[in-house]
Amino acid sequence: MFFKFIKLAFAVVIFFSASLSAKESTEFEIRNTHTLKIKSEVSGLEYELYIRLPNDYSENNKKYPLVLLNDTGYSVAVASGIVHLMAGRDIEDVIIVGISYSKGHNPLLSRTRDYTPTYAPNEKRGHSLEVQKYSGKASQYISFISDEVFPLINQTYRIRQDKKIFVGHSYGGLLGANILITNSELFDYYILGSPSFWYDNKVMFRLESDFAKNNKAMKASVFMYIGSEEGSMVEEMLAFENQLKSRDYQGLSIQSKVLSGLTHHSAFAVLLTDGLQKAVPRQSKGS
Amino acid sequence: MFFKFIKLAFAVVIFFSASLSAKESTEFEIRNTHTLKIKSEVSGLEYELYIRLPNDYSENNKKYPLVLLNDTGYSVAVASGIVHLMAGRDIEDVIIVGISYSKGHNPLLSRTRDYTPTYAPNEKRGHSLEVQKYSGKASQYISFISDEVFPLINQTYRIRQDKKIFVGHSYGGLLGANILITNSELFDYYILGSPSFWYDNKVMFRLESDFAKNNKAMKASVFMYIGSEEGSMVEEMLAFENQLKSRDYQGLSIQSKVLSGLTHHSAFAVLLTDGLQKAVPRQSKGS
């Protein structure tokens, strides 16, 4: 345990702002946020974690639900604004943690590598065949979340261990489905938006079938969403929901919603609003 | 004209980041954003403008629609994320400009002063009777937008003069309704979320009636939204829509939507997604 802690201490570098007075940037900064740097021991890849704490975090000793995001190019901004408005009113306040793309890499390469379950060099619906060469490292990335990100944020922040929420959209939704069938206990709630179930000849359906052969339980509450304007992806999401339901997994609750009039890119803010209301409604038992 | 320019040059201080290398902050920064400082000559109040430019802004000479936001504590983050996802796909890319609360003041005082149409010291539904003492300065704030903010951003950025979009929520929606009946030509599109039409014994209905006595035109496209869970505010918004429609103003297009299952604070991200799709759909004529 102590050895693990020491390893962790070396693996991460935590930035604290000694002084803001020398700040020269004029970029728009989201309040109550800061950045942790983390280098994965397993992959050697470097990431940043973007943290948003509740407004009154330092004024109490409460533990808070965790909302874990990927694709931080848009997700942290949207989630921070939505939580600012809804926290304490529609939903419990939460700690947001966004995992950046790996430092020094093209974001499209990073998300293809980290979020896809299988190596599929010929997948033409991905970002490009060039980045598909790096595909299929989700299990390494899931271990990174489990073994490196979680220990760091659990020792740094007061996080409720019974209310860990995964949010993923598109490839991030595919990643969430993958976590569900490999490490479902990693999160309590899964908000999966417009998941890319088409990936690699719908490989996620096969991976789930393999899982079902040897497993009877899947402890998680899953909320899946898709825009009505997303073509064949609508049917694919509903088919995956049906496949999961047909297993009658012990502990699994799953529901889905087709969002009328919305597209792949307009659905995110709407589904995040709805998903957070379902996962951490204010009426739920307090901490 | 030249004199006006000189005045403007003195009235504002534009920060440009000489170097980001000395940056010490670890707050989360939204990409493609920066901050302008502006001091109102009329009121003496100081504000910041938070600007988000399109990703390819510096690579072309195109003009872009303007999205003007208030209540920047949440609106800039939500809008930046939504535009990041939707721009070039569901909507035209836009320039976002958020006007901060006045520097050195309580945000609740600032928004009560700047966004409310009338002095109403006894309005009990406001933030507090204490800040109501400062209420009713919207006409001064509208002049600030018109005479100081617009000249600055028009000379600094390439903005389409036929696609200026106002976004306001709650008191910000009330402010938008006020602009509509005092300076409707200031914006081409009005996205008004959950407007506080209850304010000061529903004074906005009376102000609109006064306007209607002497005016036959109101050149604007208005999109109004409210959450179905907002109680009497739902009926008030629909009543205001009906009152506007009953005038048969030349040039006015107005539509509204009651957002199922949403509250005052969960409605914003949803209505912004919908409103931008209506105001600047990608299919519309390009610039």
Key attributes of the depicted protein:
homodimer; 287 residues; alpha/beta; Rossmann fold; nine-stranded mixed sheet; 9 helices; 10 strands; 24% strand; Esterase-like (chains A, B); AB_hydrolase_fold (chains A, B); Siderophore_Hydrolase_D (chains A, B); hydrolase activity (chains A, B)
Describe the protein's architecture and organization:
Chains A, B: One of its GO terms (molecular function) is hydrolase activity. The structure is a homodimer of 287-residue chains. The first copy, chain A, is built from 9 helices and 10 strands. With 287 residues, the first copy, chain A, is of the alpha/beta class. Chain A has a 9-stranded mixed sheet, with helices on both faces. In chain A, α2 links the parallel β5 and β6. In chain A, α3 runs parallel beside α6 and α6 packs parallel to α7. The relative contact order of chain A is 0.13. About 7% of the residues of chain A have low confidence. At the A-B interface, β2, β3, α2 and α9 of A face β2, β3, α2 and α9 of B. β2 of chain A pairs antiparallel with β2 of chain B, so a sheet runs across the interface.
Broad shape of chain A: globular
Q: Please report the number of helical segments of chain A.
A: 9
H/E topology pattern of chain A: HEEEEEHEHHHEHEHEHEH
**Count of distinct structural domains of chain A:** 1
| Major beta sheet summary of chain A | 9 strands, mixed
CATH class of chain A: Alpha Beta
Work out the number of β strands of chain A.
Answer: 10
In percent, how much strand structure appears in the residues of chain A? 15-25%
CATH topology of chain A: Rossmann fold
CATH superfamily of chain A: Alpha/Beta hydrolase fold, catalytic domain
Class from helix and strand fractions of chain A? alpha/beta
User: Strands across the major sheet of chain A, in which order?
Assistant: 1-3-4-6-5-7-8-9-10
Mean pLDDT of chain A: 92
The low-confidence parts of chain A are: 5-24
Distance between the termini of chain A: 27 Å
| Oligomeric state of shown chains | homodimer
Protein name (chains A, B): Alpha/beta hydrolase
Pfam family, one (chains A, B): Esterase
Keywords (chains A, B): Hydrolase, Signal
Family (chains A, B): Belongs to the esterase D family.
